[in-house]
Amino acid sequence: MKDSVRQLVREGRLELLNAGWSMQDEACVYYEDMINNMMIGHLFVLEACGVKPRVGWHIDPFGHSNANQRLFAEMGFDAFFFARLDYQDKEKRLQDKTMEFVWRPMFDSLGESAQIFGHALYHHYSAPPGFDFDTLSGDDPFIDDKRLTTFNADDKAAKFHEWVLEQREHYTSNNIIITMGDDFRFQNARQYFKSSKALIDYYNEHIGKYANVELIFSTPSMYVDAVNAEGLTYTTKYDDMFPYADNDLSYWTGFYTSRANDKEYIRRAEHTLMASNKLFALNSLSSELLPTDFADLAVTTKDAMMDVIGVT
Predict the structure, then answer these.
(1) Mean pLDDT score of the chain, rounded to an integer?
(2) Could you say which of 33, 60, 89, 183 is catalytic?
(3) I need a labelling partner for 252 at 20 to 30 A (CA). Which of 38, 140, 154, 283 fits?
């Protein structure tokens, strides 16, 4: 199974996105926490699959910061995809076709050296209405067998085409990316794939070739490369995306100040970790250090961390 996954990754049929230990919050964390979070995940992916992720994928954090984009650009990401942005900001971007832009964080000091391509997803990170093919959904599967009384291919393909035309009106590229799935989806991945494949084939044969539209299985990196090849010009963004609100009465700002004790423990632990890492590095550079001494240094560092966070 591991070999099969590695093969899919090498062929570009499976893309590992973001690949941090977690999809980190961008508001409350310290920049060193961001770096450590991404470093742990990227080292694992590199060792397990031999790849370095190209695309940042923060579809669920509640707002986005310049610091995060600066770090992602310097980590080698080509693009940053996200789903949550303030409802007023999204309405304006949909109207102006600025859902994609060049993000230049900390421009006054960094210039264009840390810029990254930003993409706001059209429909959160969900499948279009009626096309969630997982067992958790109540949407009907795509049935293209005319012998069955449940045949619905013509109707579903036509509705999907309406969605394609609608979404295309809000982006400048000739390419659009349509997300499939949602939280906890693909519990029956085979079923989801079967309907998705049938939809693609039927749409291309009966609608796409007449409307000059083609559906393909794709990845965010494939999309970014296709958009880049068009040579379009995009607007620029320089500031944060805070605070985030779903509507005029739903600001997601409580997490800035909630769980204050937890935040203090995390800060103290991180301070100790950074200090221990620095001392470890300085001792490691000592010409007097023997190879057998490294194990003692590691144990000392671990003990210091456990004391700070109250673990025995």
Answers:
(1) 92
(2) 60
(3) 38
